[in-house]
Amino acid sequence: MSIHNQAKKGDIAKTVLLPGDPLRAKFIADNFLEDTVCYNEVRGMLGYTGYYNGQQVSVQGTGMGMPSMSIYATELIEEYDCEQLIRIGSCGSIQPEVQLRDIILAQGACTDNGMNQLRFGGLQFAPLADFDLLHRAYTIARGKDVNLHVGNVLSSDFFYNDEHIGDPFAVWQKFNVLAVEMETAALYTIAAKYKKRALSILTVSDHIPEGKSTTSEQRQTTFTQMMDIALKLV
Ligand SMILES: O=P(O)(O)O[C@H]1O[C@H](CO)[C@@H](O)[C@H]1O
Ligand SMILES: O=c1cc[nH]c(=O)[nH]1
């Protein structure tokens, strides 16, 4: 057991898929996995272990934002010896060529979050995906009917921005950051600390400058493609 997870040692697989939404974890467990066991209900942050094509895999909700991701990623590594952490999340595009339902493999993650400022004493750390996971995910996704992008994302502490700031994404847009979400920089930093492998696979649920969003039906289909890519990495 850890503070936020009631699983016993050995209950969680070496590879863990990490959706922000715990009900996305349940969806994967119900629709993709066999012989599934729910190992965690603490705080409603559901976690399951099952089998995909005969390979053991877990899926654990992480909640929203970098403190929450940091708690789950740290406990999965420190208490449960997990080796591969694969986020499957939604994001908002800030580039014209990155459209609704496209899939992004986050090669790196910028952040406006303060944790790495404290951790690195004001120096700049570059949170990066594991190259092997990224390369394999790229190969798998290229074999599918998806619009795929690989690049930088922004992990932001803000879902709602304050009007007095002006356009909070202008500088990131200019420097070719593809999309905004809220967890990847923390995941990549924690994975680096413990020399573990991490990757974020993101589906574009919204286009922020164009004010567009996906329907719930579109989310369901496209999120399924992202889940399929992640599960083939196990
Ligand atoms: O769909 P998930 O994985 O939760 O990811 C995105 O959605 C949430 C905001 O609605 C944030 O957690 C953001 O990163
Ligand atoms: O615009 C969006 C969409 C999904 N997730 C975010 O953090 N922002």
TrEMBL record:
Coiled coil: none annotated. Keywords: Glycosyltransferase, Transferase. SUPFAM superfamilies: Purine and uridine phosphorylases. Gene3D superfamilies: Nucleoside phosphorylase domain. InterPro entries: DeoD-type, Nucleoside_phosphorylase_CS, Nucleoside_phosphorylase_d, Nucleoside_phosphorylase_sf. One of its GO terms (biological process) is purine nucleoside catabolic process. GO terms for cellular component: cytosol. Its EC number is 2.4.2.3. GO terms for molecular function: purine-nucleoside phosphorylase activity; uridine phosphorylase activity. NCBIfam families: deoD, PRK05819.1. PANTHER family: FI09636P-RELATED, URIDINE PHOSPHORYLASE. Belongs to the PNP/UDP phosphorylase family. This is Uridine phosphorylase. It comes from Prolixibacter denitrificans. The gene is deoD.
